[in-house]
């Protein structure tokens, strides 16, 4: 592996750094965007059960706030449960924007790496081509310098694509997953609003 890095020349280090950052983001997002961690199954039913039992006490709100992103939406809604349905929905929407920002964290960086990696590979290719042309002199080509220039050009192009392709695939996957999770959280939050206000009206 070290021999390949040496053959690729100094431009490969920028691609290697990009690959390390990309891998770290992918692993972090795979862990953070787990469905069970973002939209825990049964949380709506559990929240409604607790709400019927103790109401909108701070104990319930604090537990929901620290539970999960979906719990944060429920907590925001229940803090305004005594207001109108519109006020409760607005509170959930405001919290939802913050949750969406949290879920989309680092995705811009991953997309940037996916777009920049081929350009870094192209930079290495250009540098390799410069070395190839530089190997030409009055007495002919310097074989060692010519071979090194070809290695720099080809290895950087290949490594740039190797980093860019999976980065773009995971970027698209995470964007789609975040959109799906946000839609599901919105649907459950709306159901919480409807049930909470329905019970309040029935009890009045």
From TrEMBL:
Keyword hit for tRNA-binding: no
Domain MotA/TolQ/ExbB proton channel: 67-186
InterPro entries given in the database record: ExbB/TolQ_transport, MotA_ExbB_proton_chnl
Membrane topology: Multi-pass membrane protein
Localisation: Cell membrane; Membrane
Membrane in keyword set: yes
Keywords: Cell membrane, Membrane, Protein transport, Transmembrane, Transmembrane helix, Transport
TM stretches of this protein: 12-31, 106-130, 150-171
UniProt record similarity statement: Belongs to the exbB/tolQ family.
Protein name as it appears in the record: MotA/TolQ/ExbB proton channel family protein
Lineage per the UniProt record: Bacteria, Pseudomonadati, Pseudomonadota, Betaproteobacteria, Neisseriales
């Amino acid at each position: 592996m070290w021999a390949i890095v040496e053959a690729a020349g100094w431009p490969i280090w920028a691609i290697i750094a990009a690959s390390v950052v990309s891998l770290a983001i992918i692993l972090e997002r795979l862990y953070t965007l787990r469905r069970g961690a973002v939209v825990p199954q049964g949380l709506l039913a559990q929240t409604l059960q607790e709400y019927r039992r103790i109401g909108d006490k701070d104990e319930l709100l604090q537990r929901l706030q620290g539970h999960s992103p979906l719990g944060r939406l429920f907590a925001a809604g229940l803090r305004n449960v005594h207001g109108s349905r519109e006020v409760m929905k607005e509170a959930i929407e405001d919290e939802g924007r913050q949750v969406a920002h949290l879920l989309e964290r680092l995705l811009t960086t991953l997309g940037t790496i996916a777009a920049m990696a081929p350009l870094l590979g192209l930079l290495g290719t250009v540098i390799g081509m410069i070395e190839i042309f530089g190997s030409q002199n009055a007495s002919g080509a310097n074989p060692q310098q010519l071979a090194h220039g070809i290695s720099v050009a080809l290895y950087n192009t290949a490594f740039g694509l190797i980093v860019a392709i999976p980065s773009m695939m995971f970027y698209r996957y995470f964007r789609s997953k975040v959109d799906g999770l946000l839609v599901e959280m919105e649907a459950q939050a709306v159901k919480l609003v409807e049930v909470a206000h329905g019970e309040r009206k029935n009890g009045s």
